[in-house]
C-alpha cells in the first residue's frame, strides 16, 4: 500500500463522516459502502451519548464536521508534502488516548496509519464507540489496512513506540512505564486568551465558542483570560449570553451549582450570570462552568510570563499580541498541521 492509497482511503472516510457532521444526518448516494456502515454509525453516535453525557449529539457532530473538513485530498496532500514518507520497516505504535472530547485521539490514529505504521489503540472508557467503527470502515475501503489496526484493553506489550495522553499524574506514570521506548507523552494543558479591551462584540462572541464548546473540557478550550488592569467585564458577559441554554444540560448544571457553592463557601470574589462564573486566579485550569482571569500591566512582562509557562499552555487566542496566535473562535478548528503541544507527530514517527 503506497502513500496515495492511504490518502485516498482517508478521503473516502472523510466523505463518509460528512453525512453525520451537520445538524441533520443525511445519507448521500455517492458514498462507498453506505449500505454496510451508515445505519451502524448512526447507532454508534447514539451509544456514545448514552455512555458519556458530555458527548451530546451537537458536540459529536461538531467534532465530525471538523474531521470531514480536514480529510480532503487537498488538506491531506498539503499536510504530508514536506515529509519523505517512505517507511522501509513499519513499526507497531501504541496510542493511549484521552476521552475528554469526541475522537480526541483521531489525529494520532491518522498520523500513525498515514505514515505507514501499524497502530495499537488503548482507548479511554469515556470514548470507545466511535473510533473502532471508523477503523472498520477504513479497513473496508482499503483492504491493506486489515491487520494494521488493533484495539486493546489489556496491558501494553510488544511495541516499538508510544503516543500517550493523560493527566499530569498519568503522564508521570507513562514516563516511567515506557522508559527506554521512543515516546510522545502529553499531560494537562489549557488555552488562554489575551484581551486588550478593544475587542469588538463579534470578537467576544467568537471567544465564547473557544470557552464553551465541548463544555470547556478540551485542552484547546480557553480557561484563562489575561485582561488589562481596570478591564470591565460588562461587554464580555453580554457577548457570551447566547450560550445560556447550556445550563439546561444536567451535567453542566450540576458542576455549575457545585463550583458556585465552593466559591461562595470559600468567600472568593467572583462574577457570575446564572450559568457561568469568572474568578481572579493565577492558575490556568479552571473548573467546568467557570473561567479564571488575571490582570496585566505590561505587555512585555506578560509575554515573558507566557513564555515561562509555555508547557502549561496549548493555544493563545489574541489579535496582534504574539506570533502563532489563534483568532477568536478558532481554537476548536485546528488544521492537520497544528500539532498538539507543538510536537510534530509525523516527524516523530519517521524518526523512530
UniProtKB/TrEMBL annotation:
GO MF annotations for this entry?
Answer: acyl-CoA dehydrogenase activity
The record ties this protein, via Pfam families, to: LuxC
Which biological process annotations from GO are given for this protein?
Answer: bioluminescence
Give the matching InterPro entries: Ald_DH/histidinol_DH (IPR016161), CoA_reduct_LuxC (IPR008670)
Q: Which domain of life is it from?
A: Bacteria
This protein's UniProt keywords: NADP
Q: What is this protein called?
A: Acyl-CoA reductase
The source organism is: Wocania arenilitoris
